[in-house]
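notes to self, project folder thing:

trying the whole complex as one job this time. last attempt i did each chain seperately and stitching them together was a nightmare. two parts in total, labels are on each line so i dont mix them up again. if this works i'll redo the older ones the same way
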Amino acid sequence: MPLSIDRDLALHLETLRKERGDTVRVDDIGDIVRSLLGSMSGDLSGGDLKLYQEVESLAGYIHKAKAEIAALRPQDIQSEFIASATDELDAIVGATEAATNEILDAAESLDELTPDLTPEHAQKLTDVTTRIFEACNFQDITGQRISKIVKALKHIEERIDDLVNAFGPELKEQNGAAAGDDGVITDEDLLNGPQLPGMAHDQAAIDALFND
Amino acid sequence: MAVDKNMNILIVDDYKTMLRIIRNLLRQLGFVNIDEATDGAMALSMMRSGANYGLVISDWNMEPMTGLQLLREVRSDAKLKPTPFIMVTAESKSENVIAAKEAGVSNYIVKPFNAETLKTKMVSVLGDF
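result (full assembly):
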């Protein structure tokens, strides 16, 4: 006999497909499994029983996975670590680009001196500035490599976003509660490394704080 | 025939620091008439506007028009078709080189490159200078 499913369950599935497409919350999957089990009636054959056990085992696995993923605090990874990493990488590109342009300014200024020099000295100076121009190639390659990393991080961020949406508001609440701060600053909290441009105190502000 | 160092050269790269590096290296090789474009579409527009370029040196990875698309446009334009075209890019996979060759690139330089490589490839395309 062909497999048929309960009409209410079929409507529920259709509604979910329309509303959520391929991203379905785990709670919804639980509802569907429950509906599926509820629609099973009459004498259960050995095959039905095996299917029932497999579905039950699957539900248990999903709940366990949900708890483990919640413990990883995926929203922290998304909102704090990945966002921070991409900002830091952007700052690296900006800082090395600024430094490269300073180096190029200096090399071009040196190059402009060649007409005032003897041909021998002018050639030596040109050889040196050529090496500087060649070395500045690194900035383009570094920028492209970092852009690839930023792209990969953004892809991970999107996948985490899908994951958080699939688990629904319950996971978000758990993360919010877990991320609470007790207000105590530890030595580890003070190890933050260089600050992003605009976030850091400049020397004048440091002096003001120091002399306060 | 000797290479005319007063020829117009068009360099194309979306990264302005790289344009600056190539311009300086070309100047040290004695070439002074250098125009810049920051993507393929801008380069194509400059080429079609009547400027007679003796050489195009182009990056590959640019938006909205890539260096490969620019190359294909140049090779399919009866007037621009003979223009020597050197690709300077970090794209170093063999399929990239094959695609560029099939599109009619004159030579191919992988970034990072040095002045000697630039000169060697220019000589292979333009003749000795």
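what i see at first glance: Residues 16-28 of chain B form the longest helix (13 residues).
need to look closer tmrw
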